[in-house]
Write a structure and sequence with these properties.
mainly alpha; 3 domains; Receptor-associated Protein; 3 strands; 393 residues
Length: 393
């Protein structure tokens, strides 16, 4: 049985919308016709939908509550499809329910239903299914998404003013480079006046932007598209790109904190649920969202299978070799590995939020200074020739 989203009209000409389960499109139309509905549109579930993090958080939280109440997974998804809080996502939820009915795991069903579901979420749900703690983990995942959504909104709010300043600066630059400076040049040319050096430089920049700006942007877009297409199926290229990202100043530090938090959080859930250390390492590496770490974790899992320690394996994964092996070494010596990893995840999460707030506080004045300096240069480029003309008169 598949689920179809339909729109049609009854015998009175009234619009009717909803979901219907049928074996095929023909069967769905026949069922609707039997109820007196003439079908206008019939869409099968299964196509990928975009789900916001807020919507996914509501889905995870409600599904957790239903499972915690003792309902089977399919019945819980059935109730969730008709929930008024997730009506925008009901087609995707119906597709998830159909996949689960057919025997697919919940993690795979979410991954196939929406491109918005991240690798981290898929890995967490997979870990929960392996450890039989789906209800508990979904609630924790919802809390995590709420925290990330709150952080994202604070970042967006912090960027509003700098973006407005950038927009105003671009408008001023276009006006002065495209209108005022050329008119100043024409005025001086008519009076055989000599352009100041700054004005000549800014005019050259303006002409270069006018003639080469659009072609350069198109070329950059084409190169980026071809690189992304090439890297899509090239693991080595993805690893090299990911490795360079860790080496970037400032950005690399923040990325390192984020992947460490995700790794520790996933690993703690897996070990607490009884999943083996080798499987936990592979899944937790995939949960980081880093192709490089995923590849390294897979290689290190073979060494652990032959008797190596987790702390030694983490020392050979550069983004995690700074502090995490020490925490793990304590857990290996005294037990309580899951608890220590959970504490490490909280620590990395706190550092990540502090990192964002600190650098965003520097970003706003830096952008204002850069735009202000650029506008000042353009203003001087316009005023200097006018001042020269005034002195000559």
């Amino acid at each position: 049985m598949k689920t179809f989203d339909y729109k049609g009209y009854n015998s009175k000409g009234q619009v009717r919308k909803g979901l219907i389960e049928a074996l095929s499109v023909k069967d769905a139309r026949e069922k609707l016709a039997a109820t007196g509905i003439l079908t206008e549109r019939l869409t099968a579930t299964g196509r990928q939908l975009r789900l916001s993090s807020a919507t996914r958080s509501v889905i995870y939280r409600e599904l957790s509550a239903l499972l915690d109440a003792g309902l089977p997974l399919v019945d819980a998804l059935e109730i969730l499809v008709s929930s008024p809080e997730v009506q925008d996502a009901r087609l995707g939820l119906a597709g998830i329910r159909d996949r689960v009915r057919e025997g697919a795991s919940l993690a795979v069903s979410f991954d196939e239903a929406s491109s918005s579901v991240t690798n981290f979420e898929v890995s967490i749900i997979e870990a929960a299914e392996r450890s039989a703690t789906v209800a508990e983990v979904l609630a924790r995942l919802a809390d995590f998404l709420d925290e990330q959504e709150e952080l994202r909104q604070s970042v967006q709010a912090a960027l509003v003013y700098p973006l407005i300043v950038i927009a105003v600066g671009i408008c001023v630059a276009v006006l002065m480079l495209g209108v005022l400076i050329p008119r100043t040049r024409d005025l001086l040319s008519a009076g055989n006046g000599k352009l100041p050096l700054l004005t000549s430089i800014m005019m050259s920049v303006g002409q270069a932007v006018v003639h080469w700006g659009v072609p350069v942007l198109i070329l950059v877009a084409i190169v980026a598209y071809l690189h992304r297409r090439r890297a899509k199926n090239n693991i080595d290229l993805q690893c090299r790109r990911d490795q360079r990202l860790f080496g970037l100043p400032i950005i690399g530090r923040g990325y390192k904190l984020l992947v460490n938090e995700r790794f520790c959080r996933t690993m703690a859930i897996l070990l607490d649920g009884g999943v083996s250390l080798i499987e936990s390492l592979v899944i937790a590496g995939r949960a980081t969202g880093s192709v490089w770490i995923t590849t390294l974790a897979l290689a290190e899992s073979d060494k652990i299978r032959h008797g190596d320690k987790l702390s030694s394996a983490l020392e050979r994964i550069p983004p995690m070799a700074e502090f995490l092996p020490g925490w793990v070494r304590v857990g290996e010596a005294g037990g309580g590995m899951a608890r220590l990893l959970s504490s490490a995840a909280q620590r990395y999460g706190l550092q990540w939020r502090r990192f964002l707030k600190l650098h965003l506080s520097f970003l706003e004045p830096l952008i204002i200074l850069l735009i202000g300096g650029f506008v000042l240069l353009i203003t001087l480029a316009v005023l200097l020739p006018i001042m020269n003309i005034s002195k000559g008169m």
